[in-house]
Amino acid sequence: MHEDRTMQHRAEAGVLQTNKVIRNTYMLLSLTLIFSAMTAGLAMAMNVGTGAGFICSLGAIGLLWFVLPKYAESTAGLGIVFGITGLLGFGVGPIISAYLTMFSNGAELVMTALGGTGAIFLGLSAYALTTRKDFSFLGGFLFVGILVAFLGGIAGMLLGMPMVNLAVSGMFILLMSGLILYQTSAIIHGGETNYIMATISLYVALYNLFLSLLHILGAFAGER
Amino acid sequence: MNEAIPVWMQVVMGGLALLALFYFGPKAGEAVKNSPKGSAKDWLALLLPIGGVVLFVIVLIALAQG
Fold this sequence. Notes:
The complex is a heterodimer of chains A (224) and B (66). By secondary structure, chain A is mostly helical. Chain A has seven helices and no strands. In chain A, helix 2 packs antiparallel against helix 3 (76-102) and helix 6 runs antiparallel to helix 7 (195-221). The radius of gyration of chain B is 19 Å and the shape is flat. Chain B has 66 residues and is mainly α. The interface between A and B is large, with 45 and 46 residues.
C-alpha cells in the first residue's frame, strides 16, 4: 500500500515536471520567435547587406556550438538563447529583402513559407503530443543527416550547383520535421528536461524549415 | 568556384565546413552508436507524419504557382 502511494507520487511528480518543461519551452520559443521577427524587421529597415547578415549568422553559430552548451543549465543560458535567435533573425533580414526584390510575388512566397512553417510545426507537435510515440531512435540518424545536409549545402553554394542546394533544402525539410518529432517526444518521455536546450533545438528546426521552404517555393513558384 | 559569392565568404564557409566535419564528425559516430535502434514498426510510424509533410509542401508549391 505504502509502495503504491510512493510510486503514484513519483509518477505525478514526473508528469508535473514534463508539463513544466513543455510550458516553459513553448513560452520561451514564442518569445524568441517574436524577438527574431523584430531583429529581422530591423535588418530589413536598415537595408543590411548579405555580408553583415552572414557575419551575424556566423556569430549565432559560434554561440550555439561553443557557448550555449556550457551555460544551458544556468540563467545565463536564457540571455545566450536570445543572443542566438536575435542574430539569426538579423541574418535572415537580408535574405527576406532579397526575395522581396528578386521576385514579383516575393511577399506571397515569404508569407506562404511562414504559414507553411507554422502549420508543419503545429501538425508535427500535435502528432507527437497526442500519439505519445517515442522517437528517440531518430537521434543518431538526425545527427548524421543534419551534418551531411549542412556540408552538402556549403558544397553546393561554393561550387555553384543550384540543383544540389535544392536537394539539400528538401533534405532539411525532412530532417527538421524529424527533429521536431524527436525533440517533442524527448520532452514528453523525460529525455529532455532542460527547456533552454529544447527551445533552441525547436527554434533551429523552425528557422531551417522556413529558409528551406522559402528556397523551394522561390525555385518552383518564384516569378521574376 | 561560385563567382556570385565574395571570396572572403567562400573562405569562411570552407572553414566552417571543415570545423563542422572535425568537431561534429566523431560525435555523429558516437550518436549513431549510442542512440536506441528503431524497429521496422517505429520507422513505419514515422512515415505517416513525414509523408504528410511531403504532401503539404507539394500543395504549398501548387498554391504558390497559382
